[in-house]
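Hey, quick one: can you model this chain's 3D structure?
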Amino acid sequence: MSRELRMIITQNCNYECYFCHREGIERVCDSKFNSSDYEYLFSVCKEKYGWNEVSLTGGEPLMNREVDNIIKNLYNKNGKITIVSNGELLLEHEKVIPYIRRINLSLHSLDKEKYEQIINRKNKMEKILRNIAYLRNKYPNVDLRLNVVLTKGVNNTEKNIMELLNFTEKIGGSIKFIELYTQKKEDIVKLEFVEEILLKNNYKYYESSNVSKKYMTNGKTDVVMSRIFCANAEKHFEPAYYCNKYNDLFVTPDGYVNICREKNDEILILNEVKKRDKEGLIRKMDEALNSIGKKCIFSKEEKKLAINGGEKIFKDGKEGKYIHPRITKEIENAVIEQLYDTISIYDNSNIFQKFEDEFAKYHNKKYGLVTSSGTAALWSMYDAIGLKSNDEILCPAYTFFATNTPIFFTGATPVLVDCDEYGNMNVNEIENKITSRTKAIVVTHMWGYPCQMDKIRDIADKYQLYLLEDCSHAHGGSYKGKKLGEWGDVAVFSLQGNKIITGGEGGILITNNKNIYDRAILLGHYNKRCKKEIDKNSPIYKYSVTGKGMKLRAHPLAIRIAYEQFKDLDDINRQKQEYAKIIIEQLKDIKGLEVIKPMKEATNSWYALIIKYHPEYMNNVSREKFVNAVIAEGGVEIDIPNSTCPVNYLELFKYPDFLYSNYKNKIRYNEEDFPNATKFYHQIIKLPVWEHKDDEEIVYKYIRAIKKVANNIDEL
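Sure thing. Here's the predicted structure for all 716 residues.
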């Protein structure tokens, strides 16, 4: 996470604003750091963490005797410098102003009486306004921002806010409205009051984090509304996280890194800086970064589990539901439009063609074919590569059974391969399973965790095998810079109800191989599509009218719904990535829960987030009891996946000949055959990964529910 390094270079100030907390530091002193110390500290942080932004604050930073040298030294190290000042002393330091990127000026009102009431000084405003006018005239490239702390009963009027906005526009600057930093709730002026004024005066949002900051503009003046989170932390679902996410580190004048402005929680770095002890300094800074939010005074410690009669985390039984897809107005309108356009299923015109072409192109493939389900797409894939009774195909032992079951319709033998730590096909066992009869390898990117596709691709090429991908969990995921679905000779995706892209039901096959594409059409898209698209020189064209007699066509309404979501796939996955990171970070210290992190070279699609449960660290409480306790808190989407299992557990793989007579004495798997898959199956818990910005509270309530059960495991 990129942070701004904030240096409190003095706590002395020429004003006495009653709300000033001097960044929460209780001791008042001049700095024990000199200008070269600040330069060294910045250089180390820039090299180690990539930080290039530094804010000089106080007190009044311009009262530090070495401030000019500090600014010059930081500038010479390519620091982007912001100085937070009341503005009175600016012209006394005019020679370093060209080195400053932005000046944040504390100007809380243009009403002289109110301004003096806030700063507790007389006859200062005229000089401040003259200094601002001079700066804007002589240094037009310096970014000027007004900082306005909203104070109840003093400057929280619409008149004051509009005067400041008009003044900001006049000087060509920006303005920041800040909630008062206090635990006295009665003193807090809510930012929503400012938002209403801005909206009424034709300001529009251009960015919002929902919690920390909101950005609005009228095209001339930019406005930042900054919520000092700690002021309202106890109201929020996970204050410790927000502290970690939104708070910067402050370096105090007496040589500490300040972690929490409420608790005066600090780590001393003075000696390391003075001695130029780089390793020691980095160790201390790492400690500080890892400590942010850990001891938050507002963190909730819920007692008594809901399963034992305690208060639930989710008050409403519907709160914890994963609603997917959300039927937006755009989807509603698209469906209505499609109804009036066509619901014909006979060719690839209209929505079929649009979705197939764009989906294939997204994965760098030439051809796409929508089907009635993901299973139908899998069957089409196996049939299209020409699997027959004497062939073998390597399949994952751990997967949803539909990856493998369509193979039975071809007569080929599914040869199961045990899984790795991610539940995916174990690369190290593949070659041991290859025989002269092996025709293909099919992989599943389980739960959206990518397989090691480069290694599997190499094996497939070495033995001249088809590489097939079941990407039903993997929409938009990637491995080593290539999309999942791009690695295989053929790939299929499910569009079933809870998949990342869904039409309620449906599937799609993609490939670069025209012959495979033609044969896939032949299986289940007889007559019009066959005649229109199958190469007329192909020996199968003569079967176009009937195809193979199957009907595997998708419904246009389903594909239209899927298409509307597909347009937002990258945005959906970006949000999923953010929530997955939050969940991983928040649960990483719970010893009995091992969150499976993605490989460094992989980008998960996060169909689900998988957690391995270790009862030995949970008072030997069973996985089932733990999950039921979280469900009792209202976290109804936490799940032990049962239907997705080692397929050798299933009767169809133990005794296939009961349903398929041609498999007599051909396959016989036992439950104990694949120990890795068995172990994985009996360990895992899964969570959905939410995809909308306003799902943040739900995500944190799930985290709270899981932590609550883990912290009170002795109740179970």
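One thing worth noting: The chain has a mean pLDDT of 90.
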